[in-house]
Amino acid sequence: MAAEPDFGELLFTLSNDDRLEILRLLMEDEQRMTGLANRIGSTPQETSRNIGRLQGNQLVDRTPDGTYRVTPYGSHIHHFVRPLRFLYSHRDYFREHTLSVIPSRFLSR
Fold it and tell me: How far apart are CA 11 and CA 13, in angstroms?
């Protein structure tokens, strides 16, 4: 049995734009590896490596017919990527401003 990846390994997996794009595309629909490679403009070998990393972190799995899909766990993780991307995109603003004055029920939307 393989050792379970640590949290840093998950963050490393999510730190790659191609892997994030693969995850996003698979959220839309199951796809084959070559189709994913074409859509992200990467080689099949590089795409296979990235899918392997996503699989290693249990974010995607391969179906019996050879397509890839996001796991329920991967879907939950993907749900948190968009807010992180928003914070990252507006990091200059958030260096000086806080969200603490906004009720938490609004932050989770």
Answer: 5
For residues 74 and 65, what is the distance between their CA atoms, to the nearest angstrom?
20
Instruction: Give one word for 19, left, alpha or beta, with left for phi > 0 and alpha for psi -120 to 50.
Output: alpha
Structure tokens at 104: 């938490």
pLDDT tens digits for 27-68?
999 999 999 999 999 999 999 999 999 999 999 999 999 999
What is the Cα–Cα distance from 60 to 62, expressed in whole angstroms?
Answer: 7
Please list the residues that pair with 82 across neighbouring strands.
none
**Tell me: the pLDDT tens digits for 52-109?**
999 999 999 999 999 999 999 999 999 999 888 888 999 999 899 888 888 878 776 6
The residue with tokens 């590089």 is 46
